[in-house]
Amino acid sequence: MSKVVTEHIVEEIGDSFYTVKMDGTRDPTGCENISIVLRFVDENYVIKERLLTIATAVAGVAKTLTQTLIDEIRKAALSTDKILSQVYDGASLMSGRHGGVQRLLQDELGREIPYVHCFNHQLHLVVVHAMSGERAIEDLFNICNVLYKFTRKPTVAAHYQGNTLKRLLEQRWTGHLATVQIILKSFQDIVELLRHVENSASFPADLRMEAAGLLSRILKPSFKFHTQIICKILSLLEPANRMMQSEEMDLQTAVQLVNTAKECVEALRTEKVFTEMWSECAQERADDTIHPGPTKRRRTLNTTLEDYVVEETVGVGTQENHQMTEKRRLFYSCIDAVTGEIARRFGERNSAFMEAIASLNPESSFFLEPEKVEPLLKLTGTTLVDAEFIVAKKLILKHVDSITPPEDGKWTLKNILGHLHTTLEAMPSVLTAFKLY
């Protein structure tokens, strides 16, 4: 059965160029299990991704993984000369510029094969690195993890009426988003559960103490405030993360998605958003405080300042003001950290290949300019014919201007190929450029 499926995949790929996507996980025996996925455009100009095989490497080192990849491709009777690009995560084992799989594959095959760091993985690293810079956010996720384990205990789970909490996964930040969303949605159910366990003699003493400790932490206004910050930021990144997993996603659209998500996160950076969030959390303090502190003496204005307007105080100040100042700092810091990480990780996209890809967009000011597209065609040794690009540019722009775009109301690479591939077959260098893109 496996052989039949593999033969069908090879037949689908035919003589097309393809991108290699590879990831691995180590099993209990120490062997590295590697999934090899090939992405290509079939004879009907449809983008497809196929799992070619799941191979086993005896050692999880770059040289062994590279050789395993090459062996499996050749074993399936595919030509390694048709590898167009390679996509892995950002681990140095895979992405290393000198000894990583991406470098060794190029050295072994003796030609340039561009490496693309998986965008979803990069987005995950953005979240992990940005959030790990704040101790308060780390503490929040530690509490979330303890809450998850607490509600999973059989004696406790029977009394919990809220939505099931999600387990936090280091490899997937979407679990963090799901967790904070559930905590905000089922906050009252969680509070009631912890109060029930704390005050019920039927539970063991250690369980009651754990419930009391968790309750005291989540009833602090800061807990809900931190949860709301994370929920707002991650919710804006989640659509891009989900859309970038689509088979039909292309590199330029992915860059646009990330930039749009970044702009949405930056839009949160206003005093109005902060004040609304902090006010909402602070209002719940009176009802949710378990052990209220002693009533403080009301502060009075110094009589010598009666004829002056006091704009700010100097010295100790109130605890609430200090709290608000710290939360304001945290709020802006989280937003700046996320947008800064996005700019740093996705900002290095000004290469010749990105310009080549951008030049195949009808909305580009340098649409189908031969010198821009040339680096893409050089990867496959395709001869660029200037005349074909001149005619194709006029033809496509005329088509785009005169005909209403299908489906989502926008001309995309998929739509252009779907409508014009028959005509573009008379201009092979242009058609090749679109297929490679």
UniProtKB/TrEMBL annotation:
Source superkingdom: Eukaryota
Q: Which InterPro entries match?
A: AtLOH3-like (IPR055298), DUF4371 (IPR025398), RNaseH-like_sf (IPR012337)
Alphabetical list of SUPFAM superfamilies matching this protein = Ribonuclease H-like (SSF53098)
* Record-annotated DUF4371 domain positions: 2-98
**Under which name does UniProt file this protein?**
DUF4371 domain-containing protein
* Source organism of the structure: Pogonophryne albipinna
